[in-house]
Amino acid sequence: MNRLINLDRYPLDRLDSDAGQQLLRQCMDDLERKGMFTLKGFLRREAIDEILPDMLHKIEHESFTHAREHNVYFDDQVDGLAVDHPALARLNTVNHTLCGDQIAEPLRRVYEWSGLAGFLACVMQKPKLYPMADPLACANVMGYYEGEGLNWHFDRSEFTTTLLLQAPRQGGEFQYRQELRSDEDPNYEAVGRLLRGDDHQVSTLRLGAGDLNVFRGKNTAHRVTPPVGDVARVITVFTYYETPGRMFSDEENLGFYGRTNV
Fold it and tell me: For the whole model, what pTM was predicted?
């Protein structure tokens, strides 16, 4: 695994060591303060050079184009909100998705490695995390060409794990508004201001190729801005659950990937 992941810098295989414990403390502290942590250069450059050409070819020729109009909640009806409320403004998202059965073998090895799931479980203070059993949804590679992006939204899952394979020359930035809402307060008026571009607390994170990012997006609104130029943004999304055997429904797989497991 050290050929793919920089375990010299990030000792996920030695979490009980002094260096491993220091890494855990730093990630837990970042997660608490920022709602995320980033491991720069987590995936080695040599691994990216091995993986990326195949992924770029498949994105161009085999990917599913996922284009949808949505609101920040991915839910057309929100109790207590009129359909014309600013918090329900319509947004557009476009990306090109490869499913778990299409991604490069080295990426699957990283995703399925127990050391990564164990590390994430420790940071998230979970008893255990498991790779998803669904062969389509378990791990995806997504490409964004010029003018395409992932628009403002809240996540439904507790956390998201991404690994950037290629950054565009310009644009393609991760923007977020930390703790815009809470479990007790949906803060609809503030959501509306954000969507109007009237929120001055939006932060921007520009990731580099090989960077691993773990992000809590359930109450933090976030988006990825469109790339500018002829270099696509290419990112891997790893999905883990606290229980084994998790699958998407046929309806979910059709919506996200245009096909089912049957």
Answer: 0.95
